[in-house]
Amino acid sequence: MIDVAVYNREGNEIETLSVDEAVFGGTVRYPLLKQAIVMYHANGRIGTAATKSRGMVQGSTRKLYKQKGTGNARAGNVRTPVRVGGGHAFAKVTRDFSKDMPKKQRRLACDSAILAKLLSGGVVVVDELAFEAPKTREFARVLTNLKIDRSCLVTIPQLDMNVYKSARNLPKVDVRVVGDLNAGIVCNKQKVLFTKEAFMSLLNRNQD
Hints:
Blueprint: E1 2-7, E2 13-19, H1 30-43, H2 103-119, E3 123-126, H3 136-145, E4 152-156, H4 161-167, E5 173-177, H5 183-187, E6 191-195, H6 196-207
Parallel strand pairs: 1-3, 3-6, 4-5, 4-6
Antiparallel strand pairs: 1-2
Helix pairs in contact: 1-2, 3-4
């Protein structure tokens, strides 16, 4: 069992939750976790870079001058890559870098990422994060009280625009709904801040 402290917004511990590792798969599946992270990174690549090869540029295919006897260096046609305006020797072409994983594997990878954060002390649970209006200063004060001074993923039970707008101007702080978590964004942050409601909904989902 893993004991996870629940704090209030002032940084005071108010209760402790006991989490069974079996809820998140029991052990961290590192090979599966790496496969998922590679997939998410690959899916973030934009493969639209393209350049023209020597066969794509305009120009005659005639040899510029005869091979010998002119005193000049040997030259082919004007499309050669060594001449200004010529095509690229190894032209880039548009490609699709995307990868895919089965849904069950993606979920297991996400569970492994959260379990790894739990085992390393990277998970912080706060009792609530409710704001009457967007207040970046107030949100920054809450993070300071919780001793979060590094990159952080804030996880909430459902979309709350006041929380989102309060955090969006803070560097290296992202807000996600608990249902949108994946291994890539969990591993990309040093700390994962859950509201108690979001954390309990995650536990209940995995126990179903």
